[in-house]
Amino acid sequence: MAARFNPPPGWQVPTGFRPEQGWAPDPSWPPAPPGWEYWVEDAPTTAQPAVAATATATPQRTRSVARTAAAIPLPDGPLGRPPAPPTTSAPTTSAPSSASSSAAPGTRRPSRAQPGRGLIATVALSCLALGVIIGVVASVARASDAAQALTDARSAQAQVAQDRKDLDAERASLAKEKEAVAQREADVTAREQAATQKEAEQTARQQELDTRAARQSTPSPTPGASNPTTDGLTGLQTCGQLRRSGVSTPIAEGDPGYSRALDRDNNGMACE
Fold first, then answer.
1. Which residues are CB-contacts of 57 (< 8 A; sequence separation ≥ 6)?
2. Which residues, 6 or more positions from 47, have their beta carbon under 8 angstroms from its beta carbon?
3. Which Pfam families does this chain map to (predicted)?
4. In this structure, how many other beta carbons lie within 10 angstroms of the beta carbon of residue 251?
5. Where are the domains of the chain?
6. How far is CA 68 from CA 41, 76, 235, in A?
7. How far lies 197's CA from each of 183, 185, 192, 202, 228, in Å?
8. Which among 130, 136, 202, 248 is placed 20 to 30 Å from 260, CA to CA?
9. Which position has the higher pLDDT, 49 or 65?
């Protein structure tokens, strides 16, 4: 009979695997249960006598390890070749197999862990991570949109404030221009008034000149003619004499004491 390697539950080894000298299991594999039998004897494929069947009830001496990271022990006897597949032509092979299984009830190979559970857990974790990533991306996108909207609103407010400043500046400029126009109108009005006053003065001066010219063109009285307006003041020939005599000056034409000789500018007033 050949010794067969009996892997603990959860060890991913192929069927018929036989470890070599110094081989150690993967540290990620679960540890073997306490007292686990790593090597078991396979039943022979040919019919054996009843005595041999009872003799195989005693298991061969095997070794066990407490940690999975240690090397797997090998049996003391020869390993032999791997067991051949069972044949249907020998019906007597069931007796040794049943005897072997009844002789070593603790050496039954346990069922291996189903690999689908780890895959399902991995897929679930991946879906959860994907959902978290999608949520974070959506939150960042919404935050970015809100920040952009806030920036646009601030830009619009700044533009409105700038437009208001421009309008205020234009209004101030128009007000200054209106003040300048009003000042110019006042200056023009003052100039017009000054021109009107000068024109009136020139008109009055022209009238005075015309009056003087008309008086100068009047013929003077003949020598020896009496002055009918002297009234006894004929002997007074100077303005000083007239003043000393009590005549108030200037003397208008037609008043007592008036004389054309004393009216030097011929304006009708003597002793001015």
1. 99, 100, 102, 103, 104
2. 90, 92, 93, 95, 96
3. Excalibur
4. 24
5. 1-110, 229-272
6. 22, 20, 174
7. 21, 18, 9, 9, 43
8. 202
9. 49
